[in-house]
Amino acid sequence: MKNKLIALVTGSNKGIGKAIADKFEENNICVIRNGRSEFNQENYIKADVGIKSDVEKIKEYITKKFSGLDILVNNAAYTKYIPHNDLNGLSEEIINKILDTNVRGPLFCTQVLYDLLKQSSSGQIINIASIAGINGQGSNIMYCASKSAMINITKSLAISLAPIRVNSISPGMIETNFVKFPDGYIPNTIAKTPLNRIGKPSDIADVAWSLIESKFVTGQNIVVDGGLIL
Question: Rounded to 5 degrees, what are φ and ψ at 7?
Answer without folding.
Answer: -125, 140
